Amino acid sequence: MNIADISRMAGVSRAAVSRYFNNGYISEEKREAIRRVVEETGYRPSVQAQTLRTKKTRMIGVIVPKVASESIGKVVEGILSVLNKSGYQALLAVTQNDPQKELEYLSAFHGKQVDGVILSGTVFTPEHKRMLKNSSVPVVIAGQYLAGQCAVYHDDYHATYDLTRVFLGKGRRKLGYIGAIPQDKAVGAERYRGFCDAVRDGGHPEFAANCVTADFSVASGHEKAGELLAKCKDLDGVVCATDSMAVGAVQYLREQGIRVPEQILVAGQGDYEMARVMGPPLVTVHYYYEKCGEVAVQMLMDLLGHREGAMKEVKLGYYIVDPMQV
Amino acid sequence: MNIADISRMAGVSRAAVSRYFNNGYISEEKREAIRRVVEETGYRPSVQAQTLRTKKTRMIGVIVPKVASESIGKVVEGILSVLNKSGYQALLAVTQNDPQKELEYLSAFHGKQVDGVILSGTVFTPEHKRMLKNSSVPVVIAGQYLAGQCAVYHDDYHATYDLTRVFLGKGRRKLGYIGAIPQDKAVGAERYRGFCDAVRDGGHPEFAANCVTADFSVASGHEKAGELLAKCKDLDGVVCATDSMAVGAVQYLREQGIRVPEQILVAGQGDYEMARVMGPPLVTVHYYYEKCGEVAVQMLMDLLGHREGAMKEVKLGYYIVDPMQV
DNA sequence: TATTTATATGTTACCGATTTCACTTTCATA
DNA sequence: TATGAAAGTGAAATCGGTAACATATAAATA
């Protein structure tokens, strides 16, 4: 069933059928004739043919490090919800944090395939930036600031700063930090900088050295908490870059017979479900992950529609979750 | 830059360039000439044009209820990992458990767009089945058995049966159950049937009535645990259809001053991270979610390649996670 | 030597839509 | 009544590839 068949059955030209679907000039009788034939046959125009002709795929590429992660899952959820309200579809690519794959997908999407890309990488190399510069389709970065690029991201710095100040405000003085690799600008570098500045402003710049680096797993948080404790014996608070690390840290501390939160208070970030169900719940930061995805799509739609006044950078808010405070 | 430009620059016919990319007969010199031009220009054949001509999109549609869920996230992760090893891409559609949307996407994918579909719905209506019957592209169901359809699913029945027997084996006699809606064949009906048969075989068929229905949230588990307890006062064990429900239930019980697991032992299913970090961890069932996604893709690839001996139904295993047993 | 067979190549129709173009009809305006 | 604008129409070019077909050469076989 193609447009020629329909036009024949309806006794009109192919152009008329095309106009029927694209709101072109068409008389009421022909419109009705076509409508009937379309209804009977269940005909739907071929997307590929339309795409070839119009150069619009109505698909956007979504590149993420993984999908089975609470934070990224929410971002993707946000992306998809707005996306198909706008009649677009998502081509999902998972990179497993492999920069090579990121570039690969970026270039695969780049030339064709999709009308735009939402990129949620972690580490951006110079090659990334070069590729983004001369991308033929608009790209929006989600979850990270990148100079010169459209991006929506969280206020990682102030969130961690505030979180750390909460610790200091509770009289916790001897703080340690479990963070992510510094190459990860948002979760790694910015959050650690927030911690450093907070302890410095609190009068204890030397705490900035009480820092170890974990990956995003609970197991890694567990392991690195051991390293942190070996580094400095008498902590009374540990701030972590993510809830998963924090949960691992709590487990380790309790295994060592340390009472949490009485002896050592632990904070994560992300307000993951797993943090909320700990007993007692973790101190944490709520970031607006779904919103991040939603805004990313809106920015992209602005770029696609060549709408003026398009947003170039959006920094999202956050709030501290302190179970003891409620 | 199209194939005509390249052929002109390389001094060959368009067919030769096409053959260059599709391993057709081509002499070494022409191959080299084309290679050089392609390299210089960075030319890549247009996917849409290829698709229009060949009727192969090398995309498959993935329909899921949501993505920010540990179990579904893992399934999607599994799907994607195998998929792009096979050179396919995934068009992701999220239905938010709306059967209408499922049908909509199914029909959108159906006629065209994708070479195949992986459907991970929860409730299948007669209309679903009708639609699946006369789908023009192969469909694989993930996470649920559906007669006459290619499907990969978990052994929900035996898992819950075994899990319940573990409770009985521990001397827990007065059991309650928090389940999902019976329209959800896998997580709702099958798991509940496993529970019922286990308590019946254990000599306590009357426990089957100690059942309430929750949705998949922690909050719902919390609420429904209250209803369950109001229903029968003196439980010593609660089996749940998912870990999220179980975590909610544990929270409720502890709020009521009930010691968990001493007074009431609680089990979930799914082996979610949040279950493992509870203190002490939940009894739960490990299902192979990633594997489920991987197998679904393999089945689909078999169907696509018209390979004989294609798998039609795959039932996956499971194991019980009993923290007290380790 | 005659005849397959494999390799190599270009021409051209085709996939299924959109859109430009040229043209006709209708209708309001000067 | 002429005139221009707006509405309506179909033919045909176009998007960028693939594949069927015709054809030619070289190598292998009978």
- What kind of sheet is the major sheet of chain A? 6 strands, parallel
* CATH fold description of the largest domain in chain A: Rossmann fold
Which H/E pattern describes the elements of chain A? HHHHEHEHEHEEHEHEHEHEHEHEE
Largest interface: A-B, 43 and 43 residues
- This entry's quaternary arrangement is homodimer
CATH first level of the largest domain in chain A: Alpha Beta
Shape of chain A: elongated
According to DSSP, the number of beta strands of chain A is 12
N- to C-terminal separation of chain A?
63 Å
Question: Can you give the mean pLDDT of chain A?
Answer: 94
> What is the radius of gyration of chain A?
26 Å
CATH superfamily of the largest domain in chain A: Response regulator
CATH architecture of the largest domain in chain A: 3-Layer(aba) Sandwich
Number of helices of chain A: 13
